[in-house]
Design brief:
disordered N terminus; Arc Repressor Mutant, subunit A; mainly alpha; 10 helices; DNA-binding; 2 domains; Tetracycline Repressor, domain 2; homodimer; about 65% helix; elongated
Chain lengths: ~210, ~210
DNA sequence: CGTCAAACGCAACTAGAGTTGCGTTATGAG
DNA sequence: CTCATAACGCAACTCTAGTTGCGTTTGACG
């Protein structure tokens, strides 16, 4: 998790600034995981990281900036979807990952914080957009492989399939505030996989039933 | 919008308390619509409504309480989905309503505020859950009518169909922070309608392709 | 090794959110 | 009409998030 002590491309790679950066961002993630987005404070992060309060305000501007930076920081870490050999089970694993990310501590609070902070800061919203776009790109592999296996028609939009599979999970957890059952996960994966097989995600194709 | 000056079941239906309630909640909605959730303040709402700051804090506890009350208040207003005669077009209209509710001012800020405040307050989260559950119940009519018309198999879970149709819209707007195109709306409605027609929302039914 | 600028630590300050005690007003019941 | 009380308005207060001026430290570079 904290394996990047030196950023080669930065201005002062191994200096005090870089150490402060990792200390502050790690403290931000820890604080979020323990107390959640509603309770996080610049003073708490400063005290936890050992970096002075004024420095944190100067470099990150506030809680929003901390979340934004932590999000960009997390986006750098490698991530790839689980591969099971079939599209339905791949999508199911994807949906399960999302559900776990929002229900199991401490990741739960961090994930929710990113979404919540995006409402209050355009910079966080942009960072969240980039983060999700990256996840879409990486997750798309399971769809392109399904196309290669002949499970799906050529021209299927891979990222759109991913969105369709995970959207209902986010909806239940963040919008309608309902629990997500294993049956819910299976239904999303099933519907998306079937729709994809039927060619519903081929952009150029006209509506199958006008 | 402000047609309920007296709540018959309340303790003091037509008194100063009731007037203050409507004034404060209306001011909350107005303030949210103009400046958004990030800028709303108890002082601003108090000044706008003419009700004293201390009174607002005593009765609602803070911004979270205001949003929660405004949400419950809005939930009382009658709402029903548009009816077009077919399931696909009904679901499309539903998805369009959601998209407009989050993109057109001033409703946009109010909708976003409800979701955002739910992250910071369990009471708001509960209110949001109730609000969405009510919307699900009301929207389910378009599905039950489709069942009655023979478009969908008996036993189809109506509210689950609704969730499936609107979830991708919320996902793009609030999570991945992407624009929602008319083609996106048509795709969601199409996929959900087709899946429903195939019996994907009949709970007792086993997986169609084991 | 010496220099210099950027970043940092520190402490004091400002501003605004949230609280509290008390007198006043309005409302529903008798 | 009178009265008891709950809700309200008011002002003064506390507390904490956020800012700022200044001296000090750090690390890149010659």
């Amino acid at each position: 998790m904290s394996s990047q002590e030196s950023a080669p491309g930065s201005a002062r790679p191994g200096g005090r600034t870089a150490r402060n950066t990792t200390a502050v961002l790690q403290a931000t993630l820890d604080e979020l995981g323990e107390h959640g987005y509603g309770a996080i404070t610049v003073d708490l992060v400063a005290a936890r990281s050992g970096v002075h309060k004024a420095t944190v305000y100067r470099r990150w501007g506030g809680v929003d900036g901390l979340v934004r930076a932590a999000l960009d920081w997390s986006a750098d870490q490698d991530w790839e979807p689980a591969r099971t050999g079939g599209l339905y089970t791949d999508l199911l694993a994807l949906a399960e990952t999302v559900a776990e990310g929002f229900t199991e501590a401490p990741e739960r609070e961090v994930s929710a914080a990113a979404i919540a902070a995006a409402f209050e800061s355009g910079a966080v919203a942009d960072a969240l957009h980039r983060f999700m776009a990256d996840r879409h790109r990486r997750s798309a592999v399971v769809v392109t492989e399904a196309i290669a296996r002949g499970e799906l028609p050529e021209g299927t939009d891979p990222e759109e399939v991913v969105r369709s599979a995970v959207a209902p999970v986010y909806y239940r957890l963040l919008v309608s505030r309902e629990p997500v059952s294993p049956a819910d996960l299976r239904r999303t994966a099933r519907i998306t996989a079937d729709a994809a097989a039927a060619g519903a995600f081929v952009p150029a194709a006209p509506d199958p039933a006008p």
